[in-house]
Structures are given as structure tokens and as C-alpha cells.
Amino acid sequence: MKMKIKRWQAVAVWKWDLPDEDDVCGICRNVFDGCCPDCKSPGDDCPLIWGQCSHVFHMHCLLKWLEQESSRGQCPMDRRPFVAASA
Amino acid sequence: MDKGKAVDRGSNGFAPAKKPTLVIKGFKNKPKLPDDFEQTSWQKLEKAVRAIQSSQRVQDSLEELYRTVENLCLHKYSETTYTRLSQEMERQIKSVKAKLESFPPSASLAFLAEVRDAWTEHCRQMLLIRSLFLYLDRTYALQTNGIHPIWELSVDMFRTFVLTPGGATLVGSMKGLLLQITSERNGNVVSRDLLRSIVQALLDLDLYDLIFEPELLAETDRFYTEEGDRLTSEVTQAPDGGVALSHLLKRVEQRVQEESNRCTPNVGYLTPSSRRKLTQLAEAQFVKRNARALLDAGFDKLMDAKATDDLTRLYTVFNRIQCQDLLRDKFTNYTKTKGSAIVTDTTRDATLVDDLLEFKLRIDTTVSGPFRNDESFVHAAKESFERFINIRPNKPAELVAKYIDNLMRQGKGLTDQEQEGLLDRCLSLFRFIQGKDVFEAFYKRDLAKRLLLNRSSSDDAEKSMLMKLRQECGSQFTSKLEAMFKDIELSKDLATAFKATTTAQTLDVDLSVSVLAQGVWPSYPKMEVAVPEALARCTKVFADFYVGKHKGRKLDWQPALAHCTLKASFPKATKELNVSFFQTLVLLLFNENKSLSFREIQQATRLEAKELTRVMQSLALGKVRVLNKSPKSKDVSDDHLFEVNETFQHELFRVKINAIQQKETPEEQKATNTRVFEDRKHVVDAVIVRIMKSRKTLSHTELTREVFGQLKFPLDAKELKKVIEGLIDREFLRRDDKDASMFVYVA
Ligand SMILES: [Zn+2]
Ligand SMILES: [Zn+2]
Ligand SMILES: [Zn+2]
User: Fold this and answer.
1) Which pLDDT tens digit goes with each residue over B648-670?
2) Residue B267 falls inside a structural domain
């Protein structure tokens, strides 16, 4: 007998590639596997953003933070100017 | 005038008028009345009256007699004439009285006929006499206070002397009438014409309403009480009360029709004004007096037998006797009892949903048919379903979800419309269920499999179901389901893009990947498995492609949900096999090995023993056997051997053997339930904290009431206590120092 795979319908769950899976967003305190408080479902609709300082946030959370004048454009964790890490 | 002509009395019994002879005389003196004017005039009239009374020919013409009366009245003899006439009438009526009283006291038909004849004759005479004395009637009797017009006078005399209230003649007549009615009720034929005449006499004489009807009703009451009691005891003593109750209901209906017919003008003989009283009596004595006993003995049987006609009769009559409440309570009780028997019988879980659907349909058609959609019955049905379905927590919700899954996969050979209808009926059951979260968890789990294994029978059905669920459960639930559909769509696009890449074209496997967002899909346990080098390379190529498109992400492979199409060449046939990924891994081993033990297969695949056992059973012991097992037993042990079934044959080219993926394992079932209960604990935690945060201090009773008021799933008091203890341990709450039954919120 000879068996050969013609088609393979695989399944994978995508996750944020973070060192610690239980990490939470420094702004909203929700886990990254969930979404920011304004969104309904995690995933494409509620992306993360990495700073050059290596801090990660929900993009929606960070944008809201940066809109506030008091933020002065700083990373809320280390108070250094926030610069997104380039891909 | 010849004799022959003299016999001809004309139609009214009077002699024809004489030809008037014209005589013209000059009036010399004022004419003077002869002294015997009144005397002779009356004699002429008396002769006529007596002729009428004895049915003889009247000598003079009506015209002449009429003028005689007129002359008497014109010469102020009205009062005398009226008195003389009334004496004549009285004399005649007294002779009728004597004649009727000469009959032996009896209520016989012959006697009734005599009474009828006496009245008919009286009326005939009085009509003639009245026309004779018309002038007197008009100018005197009708104009003078304190005296009756002639017709009324005669009626009054007849009542005074012949059909006297309390007198033997009236008593006998009424008794005779009632005997005839009873006889007819007992099924005998009676002379309705005769009875109609007697009733008419009673009506004419104003004796019906006050004297006769009360007796009629008393007799009717007696008759139906007896019959009602007899039939009721047949119902309560019968081995099958349903048949006897059906019989009784038909009888009431028949009795009501009969009484109604008896009171229909020209057909029956009683007056329409008696109809309602008689039919009410029949219904009251048949049903109302024994209402509860009748329902207890027969209602459940009629429901069991789906006796639509009898139930219609039952509702109609209970409505009329204003006992709907009794009937509704009985119906509620029936629905709850039968329903909880279905729900709590754990041996019939396999057919639970079908049984409930069937039962619901039966109850609904009973309410909309026999019970005329009576609002209080609609409500009773709803309340009963809510009650009994939740007697057994969680399981009905789970089974309804699975039933719908089955429907969405197979379609069961139904048309789109039939399937829609069935889904709606499932949802109408689901509506009663308190533990909606259990349904949601199982529905979602099943939907995930349908989507990932391509098992939905129709996309349209899935979308329409999604809309129905949005209405039932709210968008919070369906937004996750919608996200699942979206992932599938995105994955299709992704697969197309991937196949277009040059690296994908170097792979010798046609790979497509469903990429799922976490938190949207049900969570799956991690399954370790050893993947051959060539396949691992494929996943690596795809993962690189994916992360290239989506920075910051990684892929977690779910081998348990994957499936493959294999090209399999057997000595006798070449087939395409639809198999799970685990089945694939096992079958690929047989490219290099003729025969392998369970232990060897497990070492090669690293599959967990329980899972591998299921896989091996599906390949060697299921309907389609691509492998042979020795020994041939159903159980699987480490040293059992497997080898390719060299004689494999199948009528189809494409053969599906991955049903095990669709099938829920006991572990999955348990995990799904556990997950729901875990989620519930978090919800209860959150609800208590929210309540206490706003109320600060609450007694145990108050807190319990508030929590149960807010929860959407059942929770028993023991569970609640555990959660509260947990919150005290975690210092969200504390007990009051003075009163241990009071809780205080710790800020
Ligand atoms: Zn956030
Ligand atoms: Zn967001
Ligand atoms: Zn930072």
C-alpha cells in the first residue's frame, strides 16, 4: 500500500509573540490575548504596538494615552519619548 | 229566497246583508224611540252571541248587528250593553270550566287536547263577537277607565275561571306539558304541534313567564342533575376516564342542541326566551357541579389521546360555565408533569430534544386549536415549559445545542423551509432554558468543528441561524461567532495568497491553514504529536509566510483539528481518503511497515494513549476498515498488531473516515461544561462585588436575593455560599463584628 498526502487542511491559532504569555497591557491592564477595553474581540481589529523601549501596548490604548497632553508623547512605563519599533 | 241559498251562511257564519230598500220620508216630527228599543235590540244581539257560542248560524247579517250595536251606543246604552255582553261571556266560559273539570284529574294527552280545543274555540268565538261589538269596544270599552276591552276581558275571564293559577285545569295542563317534555328528552316522539298550542295558550294568557317557566326550569334541573350524576359516575369509575368523559361531553353538546331546538320558533314549542336558561342548566348540572371530578378522571387521557374534538368541547363548555381556571390549572399540571417526566428521564437523552419538540408542538396545537389561543392558556403553557425544562439544569441546553449542530451538518433531507421551521422550534425550546451559557458553549464548540472540518450543509443556514441567535442571546454572544466566520474567510484569502508564493510551489503537499484568533474560538487542549520532517517543513514555510505578513505574531498549531485528503493505493483499488491529521500520521507509517504494534505506533507518533486508541479503532474497527487488527477484539492493548487491509474495497472513490473528529469525546464534553462553570464563578464574583460596592452593608438574605435577581443562570445556595467565603478569604468582604449574618464591603 502507498499513502500520499494530497491536501492538508491545517489549523493554527495565532498569538502575539511575547516573551510572557500572561503579560498585560501597561495601560488598560488587560491581557494581550484579550483586547483593549474599547474593542469587542481581540485580533486584527485590536493590534499591539511595540516601542523601541521594548514596551508593548494595545495600539488603541497607546493612541488614547498619547492624545492626552499630560503624556507629553512619553512611554507611560518609562517616561521616555515613545518611538514605535520599526518592523 | 230559496232554501238552498238560506243554508249558505257565508264564511263568517252570518246571514248575507239584505239589499237596502230606498225609502224617503219627510221628517214631520223629531223621531221618538220606541219604549222597548233597548230590549229588542239586545234580544237580537243576544241571539247572535248565543248562536256564535254554540256554533250555530246567525240569523242576522253582520252589518245589521253591527248597526244595532252602534244604535245602542248612540242612544247611551253602552254601559248596559257592555254589562249584558260580559254576563253572556261569563256564562259561556263557566260552562267551559265545568266541562273541563268534568274530566278526571289527569295530565293525559287527551286532556291536553281538550284544553287546546277549549282555548282555540274560545278565541274563535271571541274574534267574531268582538267584530260584532267593535263599535262598543272602540267608543266605550277602550275609552273608559277601569274596564277591559272585550278581548282582554275574555282573556281575563278565561284565566279566572278556566286556567286558574293553582286550579286543577292549569296544574294538570302544566303537568301534562312537562311529562311530554321529559318524554321527549328520554328519546320519545311527542306531538310538538299540540305542545306548541298549549304553550301558545299559556303565553296568550300571560301564564308562561311567571307560572310555567319556573316549573319548567325546576323539572329540567331535576332531569339533568340525575343524568349528569349518572354520567359523571361513569366517568369517575371507568378504567379509562377519557372515553367516558368524551361520551359525557358529546352528551352535553347534544343536550344543548336539543334544548336550543326546543326553543326555536316553528320547529320547537318553547319560547326563545327560555333557551339560554335551559342550555345553562344542562351545562351546569352536567359539568359545573362535577367539574373537578370530571377533569381529574378524564382530562389527562384526552390530552394523551390528542382528542382535539373532545378538548374543544371541554374548553367551550368550561368557558360557558366560567370554570376556565379549573381547566387551565389542570392543563398546567398536565404539561408540567409530562414535561418533567421527559426531561428527568436520563435514559432517553438521545431523543430528548425530539421528544420535547414533539411535546411542545402538541401543547401548542392544543392551545391554538381547542383552547382558541386563550391568553391565559398561552401563558400557562409558557410558564409550564419554563418550569419543567429547568428542573434538570444544563443538560437540556447542551442537548438542544447538539441537536441544532446535527441539523446544520446533515440537513436531515429537509427542504430549506422545513429546516428553518425546525430551527425556529428548537429556539423556542431554547428560549425557556435558564442556563443559556451552557448552550452557547456547546453551540460554539460545534460550530467551530463545522467550520474547520467543512461540515456545514449550507452557508445560508449558518447565517440565518446566526441572526436568530443574535435575537435570542444578544450580540455579545454572536459577535464572537461572527468573528469565527470572519477568520474562516480571511484564512481562505490567506491560502490563496500562500499558494501563489514560490516557496509554496516547492512543497509537494497542498497546504492550507485556518488561522484562528485566540479568545474567539473555543480553547483546545494542547496535543503533543510527532510530525514527520517533511510535514514539519511545510508548517515552517507557512509560519514564515504568515509572520511576514503579520508582524509580532506567532502560530500555535492545532493538530487535533487538522485533516487531510490522502491518495491511497491498495492492491485492489486506489482511493481518496478523507482522514484526520492523526489518522494520517498513523497511515503514513504503513508506507514503510507492513505490520506495527500499538506500542510501536505510539512511539512513532507520540500520541496520547486514549487519543491513539480512538484513532486505531476508527481505522481498524469502524465501518470502513483500512487496517486489520489482531486479535480482532474491540479493545486495544500495547501488543495488538495492525496491518494494511490488502483486500480493501469501497463503492465510492472518496471515502470519509474522519468522523471521529466531529464526534465529541467524553473529555471534550466534560471540559466544555467545566469551562462554563468556571466562567459562572467569575460572573458570580463580579456580581457580588458590584452589589456590595454600591450597598456597602447587606444581610445574607438581602445579598442572596440581589444576586439571584441578577444572574442569568441557575445557581444553588451552596455554590453561592462557597463564592462568598472565597471573597471573604480574598478580603473583598468581611462579616460584621457584631452581626455575623451581615456582610460589609472592604474598600
Ligand atoms: Zn491596553
Ligand atoms: Zn482595541
Ligand atoms: Zn517604554
Assistant:
1) 888 999 999 887 788 888 888 89
2) yes
What are the pLDDT digits (tens) for B365-382?
999 999 999 999 999 999
Mutate which: B478, B518, B594, vs A, most A CBs within 10 A? B518
CB contact under 8 A, A10 and B480: no
**Within 10 A of B514 (CB to CB), how many other CB atoms are there?**
25
CATH of the domain at A25: 3.30.40.10
pLDDT tens-place string over residues A25-43: 999 988 887 789 888 777 7
Residue B721: CATH number of its domain: 1.10.10.10
Amino acid at B551: K
Q: How far is the CA of A39 from the centre of ligand 1 (A)?
A: 10
- Angle between helix B416-430 and B459-473 (nearest 10): 20
Domain membership of residue A43 (yes or no) is yes
C-alpha cell at A80: 521616555
Contact A10 B552 (CB under 8 A): no
CA atoms within 13 A on the CB side of A28: 22
Reported as a single tens digit per residue, the pLDDT across B172-210 is: 999 999 999 999 999 999 999 999 999 999 999 999 999
Dist. CA B473–CA B479, nearest whole Å: 11
Closest chain A C-alpha to B420 CA, distance in angstroms: 29
Compute the distance between CA of residue B227 and CA of residue B159 in angstroms, rounded to an integer.
Answer: 36
Average pLDDT over residues B725-736: 89
State the complex-level ipTM.
Answer: 0.88
Q: Let me know whether B41 and B156 are in one domain.
A: yes
Subunit contact A44:B521, Cβ cutoff 8 A:
no
State the pLDDT at residue B393.
86
**Is the same domain home to B615 and B683?**
no
Instruction: Please state the pTM of the whole predicted model.
Output: 0.78
**Residues within 5 Å of ion ligand 1, judged at the Cβ atom:** A 25, 27-28, 36, 58, 61
Which residue type occupies A3?
M
What is the rounded CA–CA span in Å between residue B389 and residue B685? 27
Which residue segment(s) compose the domain that B632 sits in? Answer: 562-656
